[in-house]
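Below sits the subject:

***
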Amino acid sequence: MLPNYEACIKSAWEELLAWTKADKIHPTCEEEIQCFLYHSLVSQIGDAKYIKPKVGFKGAARKQYFPDFILGQGNDVVVEIKFSYLSANSLAKQAGISACLRDIEKMQTDFPKSKRYFLLFETSEAGNSLSNLDEVYLAALQKADPDCNILHYPQKLLAWAEMNAHQKRYRNEWKAKLNC
């Protein structure tokens, strides 16, 4: 019997969050997260036969698109990881959200029949994980592909009252773009 790859990736993500909260790991790049998740997936499933990281070039045009994982015999689950190093710079934030949107759209285009997971891990300059996400940013990501499962750390979204003036202005710009 084949494993439930969706349950496995969710469990691996929860394990990463538990280790982060327990101060056992402090990811500093996407590859560190990918390695942790790979180990967790292999440990859960018992083999690596259908766990494919960084698959490589796709398509005749050799378009470079590397989903971080393809799980299952028939591309059952596709996973894209995004590591975000937060800064107070609103232009950097805008570029980060735009990159996330592009990745989600690429997954939807390249793997329309697969279950899609977008994993966003944010950390700050001080090493703390404080989310600059709020419901508008999350809505923008979900709107790009309503069938994509978006998991993010930290899980607590930034409340309107916690935002500084730059974040509020940027949030309102996104809200206008999305007609929310």
About this structure: Helices lie at 5-21, 30-45, 90-110, 135-144, 165-178.
